[in-house]
Amino acid sequence: MTVSSPAPAAATAPDAAVGRGRLRLVAHQIRYEQLSFWRNPQAVIFTFLLPVLVVTVFGAVFGGDQKSDFYFGLSGMQYYTPTIAAVSVLGACYGQLAIVLSTRRQTGMLKRLRATPLPAWIYFTGLLAHCLLVGAIDIGLVIGVGTLYGVPLPAHWAGLALALVLGAASFCALGAGVASLVRSAESAPALVQFIQFPLVFISGSYFPVHADALNTIAGLLPVKPFNEALLAAFTGASGHGWRGLGVLAAWGVLGAVVAVRRFRWDPRPE
């Protein structure tokens, strides 16, 4: 007697239902993170107003379309618009995430969350998507202000989107890695800024760096490759901004490894 096998559609139906359920959980977690963020006026103002103020001040000081060798053949605002956009993404995806995770751990929120059925990967996927959305809004605001000072729109929108996704993922991984090393929420901002400020300055975010040795060192760190990727997307340069994205991705992998190995859900004992 021949025994017929079950229909493939019937076998895969439970898997499809599980997949849809996971997608709903991810969407719910993204919505939760967005609501938590937008209901905190201080976080919203600092996240979105600071980059706009910086690029506005730079526009008033360096406005005009006169190109200069000091800015590698660009005008001042053509250089600063993508680099300030990069700083805003760094702050949203690295700095804020490290501080938020440290605070939530110390207040016991992560411990309570870990006791729920919510998988850890869904929680962190929601955080990543939230940071990506915030970074995209930041870049849009900076681009809008830049156009008021005569900066052309990005030449490669696909390149800009790819750089944003890779940069957000890498910086979020680094933020989670740093949060796993922080002992208390009070020390998180100091440690975050201690790492972020030197990286921003040696990477040419606030002024071009023409020292070859310093550029070589900064090229091995995560911020300069991200700056170059956004500069390439804005100016239409081919190849120059993308060579360092492997470095950026490698730092993201390193941050993820540290986070996986060292991340704590429970508050550290006093």
TrEMBL record:
Primary location class: membrane
InterPro entries tied to this protein: ABC-2_transporter (IPR052902), ABC2_TM (IPR013525), ABC2_TM_bact-type (IPR047817), ABC_2_transport (IPR000412)
Pfam family, one: ABC2_membrane
ABC transmembrane type-2 domain boundaries: 42-266
Bilayer topology term: Multi-pass membrane protein
Keywords of this entry: Antibiotic resistance, Cell membrane, Membrane, Transmembrane, Transmembrane helix, Transport
The keyword Plastid appears for this protein: no
Name of the protein in its database record: Transport permease protein
Species per Swiss-Prot/TrEMBL record: Streptomyces olivaceus
